[in-house]
Write a sequence for this structure.
């Protein structure tokens, strides 16, 4: 049985996309300069392929956005640990993030959806852009723009993830007051090989894990 749903913000009903006037790529708005620059670089490196090789990513070519970038090992059993995290990403959470599980950076209600998102990015070779929000112990809140991109590595399409987590503003307390776990906001997929917009796959509680095929989740045995 197949499930396909519109993009939604967790905990809210689906609403039409709003035109914010920001740069749009494949129908999705990218607001932060670091996110746009990283996407443009990744897009140029992949050419006509669904994703570039990890070895093709030159840190020197994206040095202006390195503080907001990260690389994950795609490893569901280990909850996708950070291999590299930029200085501003680490500063936002008040700690070094290397080897920290990416899923653990999210609130419990956002974790399964983030697992599903990473699965789609890695196995369908599509990009993802989303909103996120963090809050410090002192009640300081900060919104982020999240970009998640697939990378090939040693002929595998599900080994590495390139991303950016860029703050939407620079408050005076950033780096001094560590943020807690993030909540996931609105999500958009950007097309892979066909450059078409992909929908968000909603997670189904207490159900078997399905196989992702061309933007759908397929459940064996007729169960949803």
């Amino acid at each position: 049985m197949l499930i396909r749903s519109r993009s939604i913000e967790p905990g809210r009903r689906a609403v039409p996309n709003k035109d914010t006037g920001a740069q749009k790529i494949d129908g999705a708005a990218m607001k932060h300069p670091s996110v746009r620059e990283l996407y443009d670089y990744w897009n140029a490196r992949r050419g006509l392929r669904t994703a570039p090789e990890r070895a093709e990513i030159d840190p020197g070519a994206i040095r202006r956005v390195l503080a907001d970038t990260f690389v994950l090992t795609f490893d569901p059993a280990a909850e996708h640990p950070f291999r590299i995290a930029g200085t501003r990403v680490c500063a936002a959470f008040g700690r070094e993030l290397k080897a920290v599980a990416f899923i653990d950076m999210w609130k419990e209600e956002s974790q399964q959806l983030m697992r599903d998102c990473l699965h789609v990015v890695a196995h369908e070779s599509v990009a993802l852009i989303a909103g996120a929000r963090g809050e410090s112990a002192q009640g300081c809140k900060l919104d982020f723009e999240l970009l998640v991109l697939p990378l090939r590595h040693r002929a595998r399409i599900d080994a590495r993830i390139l991303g950016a987590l860029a703050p939407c503003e620079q408050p005076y307390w950033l780096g001094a007051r560590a943020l807690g776990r993030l909540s996931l906001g609105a999500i958009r997929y950007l097309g892979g090989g066909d450059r078409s917009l992909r929908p968000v796959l909603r997670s189904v509680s207490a159900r078997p894990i399905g196989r992702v095929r061309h933007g759908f989740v397929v459940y064996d045995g007729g169960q949803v």
